[in-house]
Amino acid sequence: MRYKKHFQLAIRGVTLVSLIAFIFTACEDDSYTYLFTDKSTPVSKFTPVINGFDVEFQNQSEHATTYFWDFGDGTTSTDTNAVHSYSQKNKYMVKLIASDNNGVTDTAVQEVAVGYPLASFTYVANKTTVTFTNTSINANSYSWDFGDGTTSTEENPTHTFPDGGTYTVALTASDGVDNNTFTQDVFVVAKYQPVIKSPSFEGSTSVYRNEETGWYWVGCSGSSSPTPPDGTNACKFGSAGNLIAQTFEVEANTDYILSYYWVTKAGGTIGIKIKVTDGTDHNVILYEGQTGVTPNASEYQSGSFEFNSGSSTSVRLWFEYGDVESRLDMITIK
């Protein structure tokens, strides 16, 4: 004889789980069916994304099937992910009620500040020079702190940092009543610094007139009269054809400023001719100019010029006699 036993446990819930167990004996098998409850309950949560007076509410609730939004300004919505436009600047208490099919609910409440200044920016770095793009909203004045001791009130400034490294830049955006500050670490890489050998023509001329340790030298001489601005020696251009030249490495597509001191005797119009060429192809001219004549033959004058290295990674610097005796000293580049 075989007996069949059937057990069913009915518990209020949402998930049906069936378990059938067979026990074989000589005379019976048993079947059991259980109804288990799903204990998952709704969890209400959301993230507001604010853009001016428009807010996108990203619903991140769990175990819910219906939603009810209260935007805190007298308007509501039953959308899953709601988008709402506010009419005025204020701080609103936004409520989301998440419900499941059994009527179980959970509520999340957040304060959403709409219409207030929100500071933000992006940047593009080119060596130590950084261009900042202001992406702030709801603001009409701005204050920048570049983290290197300098500041700006421009809306979209360009700033050159003193050296490579990481700087914490802060932007404060204001609407005249309220303000908001955004900070971001800005990483800049220092540009390659060229090195000019024997820039002040000091020491033995046999050393600095050697192109490996100083200058390519044609006809010029070392001179200590008049007193140069640095050290005790200078380069003297005494007659036509006298010139010096030096090749050094640079970074491509970079602006450089070359500075120097010079003095001439009276009687001419061109003191020293100056030229910068590509380090290998001297027909590629990056800069060409000249000095005038100093009013005092014993007092050095400062001069400078700017050039861009273009595609060159090395340049050749040339100084040549103009039409009057001249001296050159203390050459620097940055």
From TrEMBL:
Which residues, if any, are the signal sequence? 1-26
Q: Which Gene3D superfamilies match?
A: Immunoglobulins
Annotated PKD domain ranges read 65-114, 141-188
Q: Which InterPro entries match?
A: Galactose-bd-like_sf, Ig-like_fold, PKD/Chitinase_dom, PKD_dom, PKD_dom_sf
Please tell me whether the keyword Signal is annotated for this protein. yes
Q: What are the entry keywords?
A: Signal
Q: Which SMART domains does this entry report, sorted A to Z?
A: PKD
CDD domains hit by this protein: PKD (cd00146)
Tagged with keyword Signal = yes
Question: What is the name of the protein in this document?
Answer: PKD domain-containing protein
Question: Highest lineage ranks of the organism?
Answer: Bacteria, Pseudomonadati, Bacteroidota, Bacteroidia, Bacteroidales
